[in-house]
Amino acid sequence: MFIFSSRSTLRSILVLFAVLAPFMSYAQNYLPILQYHHVSQATPFSTSLTPEQFTEHMNYLKEENFNVIDLKSALDKIKAGTALPEKSVAITFDDAYRNIYENGFPILKSHQFPFTVFINTLQIEQKNRHFLTWTQMKEMSEFGGVFANHTFSHPYMLRKIENETDEEWLVRMKREVSSVEEALVMHLGSSPKMIAYPYGESNDVIQQWLTSEGIVGFGQQSGVVNADSNFANLPRFPAAGHYAKLGPLKTKLASQPMPLVSYDNGGIYADNEPVSISLTFKEGNYRLKDLTCYVSGQGKAKLSWIDAHHVVASAPKAFTAGRGRINCTMPDKSAKHYHWFSNVWIRPSADENYIQN
């Protein structure tokens, strides 16, 4: 307890606080994570942004005083209930493309931004000239680069091969993961125990096994990580292709977690019926009347309120084969930020032999 000897002392302290306030870093308990693949003009549009666009993104983070932090350390703090610096964000890449080293790494190094690359090691072992080498990864490790698991061969993790039993499928998936863990330790000295699922595919069986191994998993649904998140299937924001423009990126960087108690998506697979998702919100002063949900390729979802804190968002029609999602956003009380939640479903084709459990 502070005891002030005079009003002048109190006044001096208040003046000092006013001077220092703009420079103080207020804590946050959530983390937006950016997902990149290629940094190149000569690669597929959907997973690429140009070196100029990537430079624009990184310069924006620097100029706007974002705290670009190490992903693994940030997740450990969130799980432990330890606050992150204000405006914290993490940067990730998938697939270990060499253009990350050639075009992305120089700007990351110049800004001293840490980053994580999820690597699939088959192409590295085959010395594919389009993929990173272990020597390049060691160099990047000296300047904030962390390398994590993206499986050995980048499979669709929920598809069985012909005549494969469920037990054989799980053994194969475990080997896809464990072989990369072994390679990371062998070539780089350690593993951060994180995996990005190829194509965002995982199920309860895979997630439970990874959790038992102490490995954190990432899907391809968008959203913000906080202590309530499923650490076996965390969201990230794609920042390439159609999402490479700076305007949408600013919105994502200012996003916060959706204040959910729970959700029910009816399972990971879609069929010939429209999907729906049930959302139950926490008690609090939220702008629930301004909640909006969009269905990929279909426009707005229908919202059916069960009660004041429980809504069902339904797609207008069934998804075609592949992946479909519902993205839900809601402005916060200030209208300067959005709460964000997303769910992805898989609509298998008849010949794709997806695991059913």
From TrEMBL:
Transmembrane segments: none
The NodB homology domain, residue ranges: 87-289
Biological process terms in GO annotation: carbohydrate metabolic process
This protein's UniProt keywords: Signal
Primary localization class, coarse: secreted
UniProt subcellular location: Secreted
Protein biosynthesis listed as a keyword: no
Matches recorded under Pfam families: Polysacc_deac_1 (PF01522)
InterPro entries on file: Glyco_hydro/deAcase_b/a-brl, NODB_dom, Polysacch_Deacetylase
PROSITE patterns, per database record: NODB
Gene Ontology molecular-function annotations: hydrolase activity, acting on carbon-nitrogen (but not peptide) bonds
Gene Ontology CC annotation, any one: extracellular region
PANTHER family: POLY-BETA-1,6-N-ACETYL-D-GLUCOSAMINE N-DEACETYLASE, PTHR34216
Protein name, as recorded: Polysaccharide deacetylase
Source organism: Marinomonas balearica
